[in-house]
Predict the structure.
Amino acid sequence: MPTEAQTAVNSIAHVDLIDVCNLKCPTCYRGVGVMPNAPKKMPLSKFDDIVTKLKSEGYQWVGPYNWTEPFLVRDLQDYVAVIKTHGLMCLVSTNFSLRRIDNLEAALRAGIDKLIISVSGFDQSVYEINHVKGNVDYVKANAERVAALKRSGAINTHVNLRFLRFAYNHDQEAKLEQYARDLDFEFEPVDAGGDPFRDLYSHMTNEHWKVVISGVRSERPYDPPGKVCPLIFGGGTAIDHAGKAYLCCAYPNHETLEVGTYLDLPFEELLLRKFNHPLCAACSFPRKDASAADKQLLFEAVRYRLGEKVIDEKLVSNGGQASKLEHAAEDRGAAAG
Ligand SMILES: C[S@@+](CC[C@H](N)C(=O)[O-])C[C@H]1O[C@@H](n2cnc3c(N)ncnc32)[C@H](O)[C@@H]1O
Ligand code: SF4
Ligand code: SF4
């Protein structure tokens, strides 16, 4: 059973099922090749174990993708079904730039609750600037299949057409907005990171992160008191096809940023490893005000490290003997002097 704080804070975990994408977006670690494609896949039984543990930690949503293209998984519907069997919500984000997706209807019917279709243009000449090797006609054909399924009542997936807005593609926005309206999709423009005309990512190999981390001192310039990173406290959980957990979903799945094997470690240990990670000292990703639940989550993790276990607000020593009352008495004794 998750603690109240876990249920309040842990929103979504991203789990890569494979280690491949079909495109070469220059604004993505996968696209530039610092995470090279490899023919790997997470077995369904392992995914089931991971989703079971995620549920026990209070996660509400699972996204079966992080740095990959989920519709390359030919039996994606089985993985979606696992998420639904556990009573969790399923979010899928796709480039949809695939000529054939034989299991599109099956995957949607299996229970994809929300689908994000990522695009950077309506016209091929603009689309292919960022979505390198992509074909916007395939995207449109797949989007229209989804719209038809929605209209027929076969699925009630919420669909967002996500427009990655760069400096050069503003003229595409109105066309994509109208297209989304015609298909009954939500239109979601987002200011995209990176710039496809500049090579900003291809040097960001594992060696690069090692060097960044080696230069870090103990100061935490981006972490003033009362602030935390929303990718540690909220929605940044990242697990790769092999079941390894990483610091957050904003950075590549590199060894230097790995925090351990997800199934082998308690949630509290994973949280502390992320919270103390040296890269955060060098990362300006916007922080948020720490909520009461965020603070409670960290207290629980620290108690775990101190040898106590928190179960539904009741403190129990690792030996299972001491009650919450006994700890409270100890606390009073300590306070008294
Ligand atoms: C790395 S992608 C993997 C999923 C899938 N291949 C896709 O592109 O939707 C994960 C998320 O990153 C978003 N994304 C991709 N490029 C981006 C960029 N340059 N800036 C901001 N978000 C981006 C996508 O919209 C997607 O929801
Ligand atoms: S389609 Fe998605 S995963 Fe693939 S390179 Fe582009 S952003 Fe990255
Ligand atoms: S590396 Fe940056 S984005 Fe990731 S958890 Fe640390 S502060 Fe947040």
Remarks:
- The two ends are 36 Å apart (CA to CA).
- The CA atoms of residues 175 and 239 lie 36 Å apart.
